[in-house]
Model the fold of this input.
Amino acid sequence: MEMSLKSTIESEIKQAMLNKDKDRLRALRAIKSQILLAETEKGGGRKLSKEVELRLLTKAAKQRKDSIAVFEAQGRDDLVSIEKSELEVIEHFLPKQLSEEEIEAEVKVVIEEIAATKPQDMGKVIGISAKRMAGKANGKLISTIVKKLLS
Done:
């Protein structure tokens, strides 16, 4: 049976402690706290589905990327390096990201399946594509590709 993200993170935390890897430990603890928060939401220690775990990680990665952009604009290289090291750890748990060509190929399949032909079909195509490529592709990039193909 496949280990849950939570148990994987917990064993990684132990390893990071043994290795005295402070940066990795900080990132892993941040992920664990997000998992615990999600589990206790809506009253109860429920186990998270793979989709929810993926959304949590994707959100955490996006937060780091946004912070990196802000800190770079402010010239705070010390904070940029912290966020980048945390982002690396988070991305380790995310599925491999699709290339632009792979995303475009997947979007073309969706367009064909639902016979989308006009810009009014964009919402439907983006929705289905985003669901299929959850965690493997950036939503903005999917949206840009759909607009390009349906315009």
